[in-house]
Amino acid sequence: MADMDFNNTDLKDYKASGALEGKVAIITGANSGIGRAVAIAYVKEGAKVVIGYLDDEEATAETLEVIKSYGGEAKALSGDLGKSENCDKLVQFALESFGQIDILVNNAGYQYPQTSPTDITDEQLLKTFEIKAFAMFYLVRAARPHLKDGARIINTASINAYRGHSDLIDYSGANGAMVSMTRALARRFVREGIAVNGIAPGPVWTPLITKTFGDLNPDVGEDFGKDVPAGRPAQPYELVKAFVFLADPQNSYMTGQFLHMNGGDFMST
């Protein structure tokens, strides 16, 4: 479909306000999709960015080039963030690169559909939770000694944490764990001036969608997102203002909350 463009993340018309001047952000899963759009928005807002990614060197190089074209500064480090040692390395890389960490965006994701829970192997279950829930905790644990008053932690969960998905049972559960830990961390850090919030997107057109559902449904681009009131999936750039809002140091009284960017699906919590 013509309007389904994975690379529709350059934000050429994005109007920045300088909300993140002088800040340094770690963003995981940021070489494509939502993470890439957020990285570009953050550098436009004045932040320096460290990108954590698993693979796809070409996409990473392209993301860094786009950021450079806007006069931004960014560096990238590859590693499986489901392993705690790689999360430690990413935090140290950020400190060595830019000397501080002000914003942590846990955005990396993994999902693999199964039509029955009996088809979910131990390995798949562990991998899903490692990438979504464990990595978030590992990175918070590694970054915490370096986060000061005014720091922000933002976790990308999913609408599936709230309504479930019959073919993504483990993924729904991992995102539910992320939501619960976000609330717990928010309560722990609130009096230290560190806000912990999240975003629970509905359908968003990213490379993860064809990787996930392409084999099962070659026409996924035609069908994806039709079940929400908007009748379409979001493009990544449509979410970035929410990520900027949650990262803004002036947004100082909101913590433990999730913003539901989902095309009109009402969430009760």
UniProtKB/TrEMBL annotation:
GO terms for molecular function: oxidoreductase activity, acting on CH-OH group of donors. Pfam families: adh_short_C2 (PF13561). The keyword GTP-binding does not apply. InterPro entries: NAD(P)-bd_dom_sf, SDR_fam. It comes from the Bacteria. GO terms for biological process: bile acid metabolic process. Keywords: Oxidoreductase. Coiled coil: none annotated. PANTHER family: NADPH-DEPENDENT ALDEHYDE REDUCTASE 1, CHLOROPLASTIC, NADPH-DEPENDENT ALDEHYDE REDUCTASE-LIKE PROTEIN, CHLOROPLASTIC-RELATED. Belongs to the short-chain dehydrogenases/reductases (SDR) family. This is General stress protein 39. The gene is ydaD_3.
